[in-house]
Amino acid sequence: MGRPPCCDKVGIKKGPWTPEEDIILVSYVQEHGPGNWRSVPTNTGLLRCSKSCRLRWSNYLRPGIKRGNFTTHEEGMIVHLQALLGNKWAAIASYLPQRTDNDIKNHWNTHLKKKLRKFQSALEFSSMAATDEIVYEIFDDSTRAGSSNVKLNQSSSSSYASSTENICRLLQGWMRSTPKINDNSIGSTSANCDLLSCGDDQLESILSFENTNNVALVDKSTSKTTFQDSENGEKLNPERKQKVGHQKNLNNDNDNPPLSFLEKWLLDESTAGQVEDMNQMMELSSIF
DNA sequence: AACTCTTCCAACCGCGATAAG
DNA sequence: GCTTATCGCGGTTGGAAGAGT
């Protein structure tokens, strides 16, 4: 006999997650930490399979997730890493703090692939000594699209970086539309009731998050999440946390020199300059 | 205003690797 | 060592929202 099933397929809910379900999941993970997803549906009463819970947590509710538009630098990183690693979205995501692999994958498929295609065809045309008129026609579409790069830079600061803020936003919208909470629909854990009755400040403190190596600390004034290494108490910003994680992995995996080389290369300013060059080219395309 | 088309992204599906019994 | 479930990943899809006609 092998393992028992994580959940029977009967009665499993599918589709978009409701704020109630999010709160239940977040409060459970706060209490027990991420992992052991198999027990999550059973212990929380969520009618979701463990897989769905894990996905919801890692792609949406996990602290430190930045949502919203990608910066030019992030896009450059993705383009470079995709060229080097292929469609290894999880690997690429590990170099982009606060972005999920799903987010990167979506952004690549919907934006970057098109941008690159245009960029490459523009290069081909220009190498064939094309006239200005031809180049103008190539980029005309992006001009009409509303100068997406300018918009991108303007709104890049509107991203939000923690599950606290995610949940607060969800709650704010949801509470407005749902004047009275139906306790039966939410579940039976006391943590859920606490979450629903507390204010934003309280919610943020409840949502401080601990995993195996790092403790996430939520800054109430900025809603930003910082990480503290539970081993040595060192405070880390999310980016630093990612790097420390990498360093640990690298130390544990000595027969993987290409990765450390890649990391060095990526952090090299001269390389970053090349990325910027390419992005400037792409931005030029929207100016034409 | 109503309809169609396109874009975008959250969530699902299927598969390989790994772990548990 | 075998069987079976879980985990994590990449590909794909469904539907909401916006744009165009």
Automatic annotation (TrEMBL):
Broad class of the protein's primary localization: nucleus
Domain spans labelled HTH myb-type: 9-65, 66-116
Source organism, top-level taxon: Eukaryota
InterPro entries: Homeodomain-like_sf (IPR009057), Myb_dom (IPR017930), Myb_TF_plants (IPR015495), SANT/Myb (IPR001005)
Keywords: DNA-binding, Nucleus, Repeat
A GO molecular-function annotation: DNA binding
Location(s) in or outside the cell: Nucleus
Region feature (Disordered): 224-257
GO terms under biological process: response to auxin
Cellular component, GO annotation: nucleus
Domain named Myb-like: residues: 9-61, 62-112
UniProt biased composition (Basic and acidic residues): 232-242
Protein name: Transcription repressor MYB6
Organism encoding this protein: Hibiscus syriacus (Rose of Sharon)
